[in-house]
Automatic annotation (TrEMBL):
This is NADH-FMN oxidoreductase RutF, flavin reductase (DIM6/NTAB) family. Its cofactor is Fe(3+). The keyword Protein biosynthesis does not apply. Residues 171-222 form the Rubredoxin-like domain. PROSITE patterns: RUBREDOXIN (PS00202), RUBREDOXIN_LIKE (PS50903). One of its GO terms (molecular function) is FMN binding. Belongs to the rubredoxin family. Keywords: Electron transport, Iron, Metal-binding, Transport. Gene3D superfamilies: 2.20.28.10, Electron Transport, Fmn-binding Protein, Chain A (2.30.110.10). It comes from the Bacteria. It comes from Desulfurella multipotens. One of its GO terms (biological process) is alkane catabolic process. CDD domains: rubredoxin (cd00730).
Length: 223
């Protein structure tokens, strides 16, 4: 069986949030899809070991914040590579709470959907939650982030229409040993203050991975 065929399935990239008592938490998820339109129902898949899973199990509520294609990797890193058990993911993130007390991310998002769980299915390592939509809104009309596009920028592959794909000398790339993000000198890390064309050796030691926040010393040469 060629399991690589599974990678041909297209996904989005979302921030799924929930609450437990007076606490809120959220995580990155690439699995959210509409099932029916009368009534409107949405399904999401959450790993059982994730902190957000615990919140949804208790509250039976969840929100889906839809990430914009232009969102920085740091937003995905904050909600995807850090645990709410250790930090408050919303401490430095602009957000609102719905009347039900659920978090909605306002930074670099296009809108949100709020759901009440009406059913769930145990699927090995994950739980598939089916929620009935109880609220939704659009903040702005832009293109949403896709899982494929995220991996493109995560691996420092700039669009072929950009000048960096013109002929140039081969430069060494470095990969983060924590999250797998690849630093490409041709692309740099503009959001982190590193201009395109900057060699890895010339990056300040205070610089951190834009996805997971790992230190420069946690990178190794990509072979």
């Amino acid at each position: 069986m060629n399991e690589k065929a599974l990678f041909l399935i297209n996904y989005g990239l979302y921030i799924v949030g929930s609450k437990k008592d007076n606490l809120i938490n959220a995580q990155i998820s690439n699995t959210a899809f509409q099932i029916t339109d009368n009534p409107n129902t949405i399904a999401i898949s959450i790993n059982k070991s994730n902190y957000t899973h615990e919140f949804i199990e208790i509250s039976k509520l969840f929100t889906i914040s839809i990430i914009a294609k232009t969102a920085p990797l740091s937003l995905i890193g904050n909600f995807g590579f850090k645990s709410g058990r250790n930090i408050d993911k919303f401490e430095k993130i602009s957000h609102l709470l719905t009347p039900n007390g659920l978090p909605v991310v306002l930074e670099h998002t296009l809108g949100y959907i709020e759901c009440r769980v009406i059913n769930s299915l145990d699927v090995f390592t994950h739980t598939l939650y089916i929620g009935q939509v109880i609220d939704a809104d659009i903040f702005k009309k832009e293109e949403p982030m896709t899982y494929a596009y995220y991996h493109e920028i995560k691996n420092a592959q700039a669009p072929k229409s950009t000048p960096i794909h013109e002929e140039s000398k081969i430069r060494k790339k470095y990969v983060c040993k924590v999250c797998g993000w690849v630093y490409d000198p041709e692309v740099g890390d503009p959001d982190g203050g590193i201009k395109p064309g900057t060699e890895f050796e010339d990056i300040p030691d205070t610089w951190v991975c834009p996805v997971c926040g790992a230190a420069k010393r946690d990178f190794e040469l990509l072979k």
